[in-house]
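Student: Please help interpret what follows.
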Amino acid sequence: MTYNLIGISLIEMNRLNEIRVALTGIGNCASALVQGVEYYKNTDENTNVPGLMHVVFGGYHIRDIKFVAAFDVNRDKIGRDLSEAIFVKPNSCAKFADVPPLGVKVSPSPILDGVAPHMKHAFNIHSREIEPTLESVISVLKRTQAEILVNYLPVGSQQATRFYARAALEANCAFINCIPEFIASNSEWSRKFEEKGLPIAGDDIKSQLGATILHRNLVRLCVDRGVKVEETYQLNLGGNTDFLNMTVEERLHTKRISKTQAVASMVEYYLPTRIGPSDYVPFLGDKKICYILLRGKKFGNQPITLLVKLEVEDSPNSAGVVIDVIRAVKIALDRKIGGALTSISSYAFKHPPVQVADNIAKQWVEDYIKGKKEK
């Protein structure tokens, strides 16, 4: 990235490299993201950071990410500085960074369907008297000069996700959809962003090494080694509000589709599959436990069974991936690319517009960083 530096002050140069980010849903994932940017802000560009493709991604360092706006329904988070709100209960993400005041006050978010009836107490929702309008959210995004809006709403937030997608369009913001509502992978929504010249990435963020990425690669390994996978499941347990929210099956329809297609796309035949959250175990906190089973046939039509257990701190597992996505989207803004971003979506999300093997998607992203045209 080059600039004409004549007459540009150091402050102005720093501003040129800023990536101005707004967040909706200040839960555990947002906490991990904000902490992660602080934790790695002084990392040398030649250092290998676990979970990031590059410390400097297309000219942008981790520290170039600047949070400028935040939205949430929790009355104890609204009005607080973002640096404080990320640690307010019911958040249970591990604290791994001391985040200084960011000068970003959390604004109220509309409730809509973002809060299921059984989650009203857990989320400590605000009074309907301060329910914001679409216009007021757009106003915050414009006033703060947000360039990118990251959607961290709870699973099942169909109306609320579309509310924020519309707000992003009206406020001239790019959109990153981290949840399993189909926006980037929906041709109608993708076209709306393309027409506005705004990039969109999604849907449903993958973790650095989570249940879906592990499951995909186990199935891929079987296929590459000639094993016919005949049935598989992925059962997940957790104790954070994400798992509590998903105890109601109605909230899970798109989540099951997203995770199932991410795995089933690794084979070219029908694969009986059952994937999704299995239970909420409060004492696990932000820890996630995953059990994966694969059964199939190998040489001589002999059976093979593979059973794997994965245990991780859930929320930090995707934060590094989102840091890479934010910078990929910023590059698209610089290059004036609108619509769904195929490369970073295929690499970083479970339900992208185009589903390919992870190694292919990673190479697409590396080519994209170097300036090659999107696939």
